[in-house]
Write a structure and sequence with these properties.
0% of the residues lie in helices and 47% in strands. The protein is mainly β. The strands form 2 sheets. Strands 2, 4, 5, 6, 9, 10 and 11 form a 7-stranded mixed β-sheet that branches. It has a 4-stranded antiparallel β-sheet with strand order 1-3-8-7, with no helix packed on it. Strand 7 and strand 8 form a beta hairpin.
């Protein structure tokens, strides 16, 4: 069982930055692919970024590539999402997810994650 707790959301102006954090419980964190997803009002939840288990390879949705950076600290059981150059369309609830040895090729798909956090709200507005 893995519990995930997100933090770091809030209100930010367009062009600003936020850093989301996700704290994970458990002793096998390094064996989980960690992902960030988001759900905007009235829309389906979508993939944002992932860090693969093993080599920590990273993957991004096209809409955030070059602006967002996912990183992980396996010693501290933490995963982060650094969000720069934020746009109003980035407004959403952001969720952290963990998938047991989820392969990189399927890391963008929600059903391949076993555990989810409660989410943290990000609002980008002037």
């Amino acid at each position: 069982q893995v519990q995930l707790v997100e933090s770091g959301g809030g209100l930010v102006q367009p062009g600003g930055s936020l850093r989301l954090s996700c704290a994970a419980s458990g002793r096998t964190f390094s064996s989980y692919t960690m992902g960030w997803f988001r759900q905007a009002p009235g829309k389906e939840r979508e993939f944002v970024a992932a860090s693969s288990w093993g080599d920590s390879s990273t993957y991004y949705a096209g809409s955030v590539k070059g602006r967002f950076t996912i990183s992980r600290d396996n010693a501290e059981n933490m995963v982060y999402l650094q969000m720069d150059s934020l746009k109003p369309e980035d407004t959403a609830v952001y969720y952290c997810a963990a998938g047991w040895k989820t392969l990189a090729a399927i890391a963008t798909t929600q059903r391949n994650y076993n555990y989810w956090g409660q989410g943290t709200q990000v609002i980008v507005s002037s």
